[in-house]
Amino acid sequence: MAPADAVTAYLEAGGDPTTLAASLFDLGWGTPNSTVVWTDIDGDGHLDLAAGLTGAPGGNDETGSVTLWRCQDGAYLRADIAPPRPDFGPPEIHQARDLTVDGLPELIVAYPRCGAHTCFAQFAVYQWDGESLVDRFRGPSDDMPFPELALEAADPSTPAAIEITATGIGSVGAGPYRMWSRTWTWDGEARAFVPGDPVLEAPRFRVHVIHDADDAYLRGDLAAAVALYRRAIDDDALLDWPAPGHRRTELAAYAAYRRVLAFLAAGDALSAQAELNDRLSGRDASTAAYAELARRLLAGYADSGFAQACAEVPSFVRENTDAVVAPLDFGYANRTYTAEVICPMIGR
């Protein structure tokens, strides 16, 4: 007999639901990481029981489901409110809470999916609509590795926001992970929690400051780009991957080269030359290619202007890929550099 059927039979026979709730996991019937919820889900003044249960071994429902037993007229009526979804594991109840300030609790459920190294989850928020529980969660959350959920409310009289943070990828090959979050807010008209735009965490790793600097350059904010490249060079508090100091010299040389590029894009050849003299004049084999790039860029700028000087960079990079591009490769969770992006024309 499937656990959900066994629980139903127990309750219909007059069994004590409190005793039952305490023993579900001892019996092996509770789905992993799920909780048992006692709450008045429909506002009739009686406590209802919701639990994530495993299915019958070998059956069609062996992945389990979230099941609700509503207390009505002294009896518990069963409803499978969160059946399994294709490609996801057994649904898990996180908690019950009045998120919409309508006086009734919503049920927060996660449908997990795990690969070899990393787990994801599609969340659902079930709300009583007078007849049944309806999922009010819109948009995907299963693109967020190892998600962590937090509920935020400015005050108890306003609907809570659901913030989910992607915390990392469980594979060394992914490289340093930059956490990001997405917040779902309640839309009263649509009667749904709708997602906002992704928000990146402030960079903790040096390479992520480089990425922010590159982005500032691409959108034409040259002053911000120059400042961020300087931070990537000088900030000792930034983390290196996989160990302190690893590739810091190469990243500093790349950042100095990009400062030369940004100064030239702004028409400031004197600052570009000073950057080359101050930071790229050494003979370090690991940074020689970036120094040569800066020298070629300055010479080309003086001879034929910025556009032509930049147009000649990709051929040098392709001939020196290991020295220019390889040090910027920090795993598949980070961006990929090519010869064409080492001297972009955007930002002039």
Can you put this structure into words, describing what you see?
The chain is an alpha+beta fold. The chain has two domains: 3-200, no CATH class; 206-341. It has ten helices and 13 strands. Strands 9, 10, 11, 12 and 13 form a five-stranded antiparallel sheet that branches. The mean pLDDT is 92.
Map the helices and strands.
Layout lengths: L2 H10 L4 H7 L13 E3 L8 E6 L11 E8 L2 E8 L9 E6 L8 E9 L4 E10 L4 E3 L11 E6 L8 E6 L13 E8 L4 E4 L3 E2 L5 H13 L3 H13 L13 H18 L3 H11 L8 H17 L1 H6 L1 H7 L1 H4 L24
Antiparallel strand pairs: 1-2, 2-3, 3-4, 5-6, 6-7, 7-8, 9-10, 10-11, 11-12, 11-13
Oligomer: single chain
Order of helices and strands: HHEEEEEEEEEEEEEHHHHHHHH
Give the uncertain stretches in residue-range form: none
Task: State the end-to-end distance.
Answer: 70 Å
The number of helices is 10
| Average of per-residue pLDDT values | 92
The coarse overall form would be elongated
Rg, alpha carbons: 28 Å
